[in-house]
Amino acid sequence: MDNSEKTIRVLIVDDHPVIRRGVRDILSSGGPWIRVVGEAGSGAEALRFLSENEVELVLLDVTLPDRSGIEILKDLRQVYPQVRVLVLSIHPEEQYAGRALRAGAAGYLTKESAPEELLLAIERILRGGRYVTESLAEVLSKQATGEFAEGVAPHELLSDREFEVLRLLGQGKAVSQIAEEMGVSVKTVSTYRTRILEKLGKETTAELIRYALEHRLA
Description:
Layout: E1 8-13, H1 17-28, E2 34-40, H2 43-52, E3 57-60, H3 69-79, E4 84-89, H4 93-102, E5 107-110, H5 115-126, H6 134-144, H7 160-170, H8 175-182, H9 186-200, H10 205-214
Parallel strand pairs: 1-2, 1-3, 3-4, 4-5
Helix pairs in contact: 7-9, 7-10, 8-9
């Protein structure tokens, strides 16, 4: 992007200070047109910062200590529709990219991506486009044409919250832990678990944990 263009204000949302520092360093190498104006370690911190500061782009992690990044993304898109969001996650594309894009993200990158790709993604997004890798673009294209309609994995049919519960169960977390992490009641998590069992055709929590591990969802 031409240095004469408007400076882009960026908020980095990630619960790991080391990651935030690394991303900040990468962005600083991209030129003076990118300026990191804030960092947040949780969804609540991110939304609070956005309520008090002007930001054009948010780099958002999926796994946050208070709420799922996907849920934060939905809130952010509703309250600040003018702000563009690039999800930068440790999770593989097949786990979260589709969900993130459907929730309103302008792009999805894993943290294994090269620094140059991060800068390229930001530039494309700020020019009004969306950024996905070639492999993800192919998958999305096939999904759009219905090519995967019959062979779609059962967990793709889960709601975002059901998927999050499945992922946390796969990590070995108890229902009470999941309830606290998601900010909902134990009863609500139990209801999600029941729905997941039905949709995946399973009978026990142990089977759900095995499913999550086999599909690399945990």
